[in-house]
Amino acid sequence: MQELGPFNESAQTTMTFSHPQSFLLVVLLALLTLSFAEAKLTDWSSFDLLPSLTQHSKLHSRAAIVLPAGWATKGCVREPTSGRALTGYSFTSSSMTITSCVAKCDSLNFKYAGAEYANECYCGNSFQGGDTGGGTLDDGSCTMNCAGDATQKCGAGFRLSAYVKQSNATVAPVLPTGWSYTGCVSEPSSGRTLTNYSFTDPNMSVDKCVATCSSKGFHIAGAEYSSECYCGDSFQATATGGGANAPDSDCSMSCSGESTQKCGGGNRLSIYSVPQTTTPTGPTLPSGWSYISCMQEPAGTGRLFTGYSYSSSSLTVESCIGTCKSRGFSYAGMEYANECYCGTGYAVTPAVKATESECSMACAGSASEKCGAGFRLSVYSSEASGSNSNLVLPPYWGKTSQCIVEPSTGRALSGNSWIDGGMTIEKCVNLCDSTGFKYAGLEYANECYCDNTISLANGGGVPASSANECNMKCAGNSAQICGAGYRITLYTKGDSAATALPSGWSPSMCAVDNPSRILTAYKSTETALTPALCINKCAGLGYSLSGVENGNECFCGNVLNNNPVGARDNQCSTPCSGDASQNCGAGYRMMIYQRDALPPSGANAWALKSGGTSGVVMTHVAVVNNETVLVIDRKEANPLLNAQYLPAWGAVWNLNENSARPLNLITHSFCSAGSFLGNGTLVNFGGQPYTNRNGQAAPDGLQGIRLYNACPASGTCDIYENSNRIRMSSNRWYPTSTRLPDGSAIILGGAQTSGWSNSDDVNNPTYEFYPAKNVDGYNGLPVPSSSLPSGKLFVAANNQAMLLDWQTNIETRLPNFPNGQRVVYPMNAAAVLLPLTPENNYTPEILICGGSHVSDQTRSEDLDAQHDYGSAQCSRMVLNDAGIAAGWKTEWMPEPRLMSEGTLLPDGKVLIINGCRTGTAGYGNLQNRIGDSNADHPTFTPLLYDPSAPVGSRITRDGLPTSNIARMYHSIAHYDRGSNPNDDVSYKRYASEYRCSYMTKPRPTFAGLPSKIAYNSQFVLSITVPTGSQNVYAILMDFGFVTHSVHMDQKLVKLVSVRQGNQLTVTGPPNANIYSPGPGWIIVMADGVPSVAQQVMIGSGGNPPEDPAAIANMLASTQNPSPDAH
């Protein structure tokens, strides 16, 4: 028989992994507690109820979709790589369905309708961007549930659930201005009539072919053989029949995407064209700039200049060069009369010159100047003749390098680093530029280093004796030099001409706008708009948020509205009407700025105080008594050493002295769960597979159960582990646990091994108990979940939710989170169970803020640590019949937040603290990482959410202290501590964080707390509160166990309290369903200000019930994990 474990010995550790999995959000309704767990909990009958980050659920039933007359499904189709497939009309809605989308497009007389990303609808008469995949079929990829009906599919990321209006009438092509049909012509006996550009598309139409050729700058388009399109400016191979007139009857094949249109035939082209014009040139150039040549755009896809581009109906050579110059580019190219392209060199080599006569189009803003032609660029540059035009660097970076010395100890550049077997100058400089550094250094062929200063310590940072000492060829380009041993090829970024924002304002995000507008308080249209002008206007009107859009529109407000989903910054790139060197959003893309938080002030102001250093990264934390905090990290090179003089990965933090004592962990419990039992023992569940670092092994902790009984700060209590006697029945990496009404714990979900995202082959869709129980006949073994309706437990994963009755193993589905909000790792949101009070009859209500709207189908290597914004959305639901029927209620924070933590404050408000604005959790996966970190743009100022305030005034930043410590991945907020978004201890940017901070206010005091409180019993406290205090009462809190933005068991219960002078008579919680038996913390509130918490035992403090038969069966049926690598 398995013993429960020695409750007078301690047990706890942490687990290590580099790319964690998705958590589940769990709330036990009967117990009214909140926590998170790993992976999807269950397979619901024949479909996945809780999908992983890389899988979508398959619905077990589907309601019939009602379509307008004549409409039918077309299938799942792709968006093009840039732009949109359907461009006629679009809208978003949190109640989107296929029916509402198609009905809208039908009412506007469009032929096609497409629903995308759960809540978006697009209409059009043809699919655009066919040359880059627009409109092509991709069956099986439209897997996102519609925001308004989970039984319907509304596309996915960059995928449209498309519908078509069928008609027997001929659909006339919609052509660009000036284009017309000019006849049927033949192909030559060999070669092609139109040779500049071509593509095939199974959904070809005349509209699509002509629009594509026009967008590429060509004047002739030819559709052939039903699905082929060819572009050019003149007919080729005319000597062998190319372009020869043919009867229209030869062009009789129906277009593959529109059967009523004709798309040529075999060796026959249906030709459409637009007249070409030529005019002379005559620009006035800025100093240092000169004309280079008429150049060809690359054949196929891509552009010659990729740094920045825009189009203007008043384009001139001078305006294009001025824009490129002001943005730090040294090359400017004008194309197709109204397009301007900027770069620091030719992005495609070799660059091919064209004859000057081919750049024949007059500039849109000056008939006396030439601005290229279709697929032809009039190119100008400020670089000296003979410079390296093939080296394409970011704006303002010089192309002249310097060879400097690397010191014998340390680094000359230590802000960021990267090793790449394909290293080039461009890769290194782009990394340093994108991560905010001004120096980029290449060393030893494959190494890159970045910084904003050059260290001269230990003889480093000085010029080498000769430039020839940097003589190693770059690993990825043998024509380039990448330093040498202890020698750095250094590139430097010059000063930019960027205009500073008004003092006290900073960027928030680029966001997708919609017709309802995401800032609604004020709007103006400006002929000379800049971000500063709009910000000053909003500030003058008393608003804290400002947004610029479409080049000339200014918006203001104090709150975000109407689903402001983030977009990458390059989508907010339309030149400002008042300064073309600055960006002012784009069409339905708003760049949002926010006022900095007002500093704390007044008698009860918050303060942020230093609290020492922890010695180990505070990845997992639990406050275990009035004097100590249990800290657990992973096996890494922490500075705190254990008894064997090796780096510790666990510690006891002394709250009295702000110091740490090492613990001796056995198995690897990194990324694990934890709960207190009814007797006060803290139990830690699950962990990481076997790890060996720096010569020290951390044995497999996936089945680990570890016990810790707290002692005074002066004590020597330690973790207790013994897998022969105590273990889980299956592997669990990233599980969740929570305390039950009988004082035991339930452990849910997890993965069977490590990895960045979850999948069926590693998922553990079960739950179990400690001590082991016989539930549903499983007798101590893992309990798989089933699919019948009921509800005691709230569970959420990805953007889906369900109810689970853990006692009877019954589940039912809840509405998905609105607008595609995803709330679990690696898109962590802040989640809390709001306070349970006598006034709300202890009714549970969930609040979840932040996370991400990025599709879970996006590969990690396609995500961007610096430019993929998190979610600003808060979703809230009352968890009773009426609340569930009403669904999720949404509101928005003033900025996007990922990896923030929701911490209940004693006054019932929620502190949303730490985290970042862009990227994801984890490390080592995404583009544009900061070192290892998958995230950037840390959020230094907390938010305060008041659940009792009206919508629109619940969230504030003002009056809260601002930190200067980035706390992102692996940070916690019991106290403001920790952070390590790296694979091991690191001291570069976003380093491993050991500093501890406290947020404090002046507070009341109390005495007379008993050691134990029985349910519904009274006790009397002696209180000292400020004179004149009116609202005085006691609360009971469970601080729980916190890791990875997840607060397991966190809870606040307001207690019935009656004050008589300096005495407060308090009644304990009504029953174990309101607060499970076990340790808690009593706090006295006086007009919203809390006392120092004092620990108390709720209930008898006895051991939870044991089932000897279930324990024995579990031990006999499971294998003890090996302590060695396996």
TrEMBL record:
InterPro entries: Gal_Oxase/kelch_b-propeller (IPR011043), Gal_Oxidase_central_sf (IPR037293), Glyoxal_oxidase_N (IPR009880), GO-like_E_set (IPR015202), Ig-like_fold (IPR013783), Ig_E-set (IPR014756), WSC_carb-bd (IPR002889). The keyword Signal applies. Residues 70-166, 178-275, 288-383, 397-494, 504-596 form the WSC domain. Residues 1-39 form the signal peptide. Keywords: Signal. The keyword Protein biosynthesis does not apply. It holds the Pfam family Glyoxal_oxid_N. This is Fungistatic metabolite. It comes from Favolaschia claudopus. The lineage of its organism: Eukaryota, Fungi, Dikarya, Basidiomycota, Agaricomycotina.
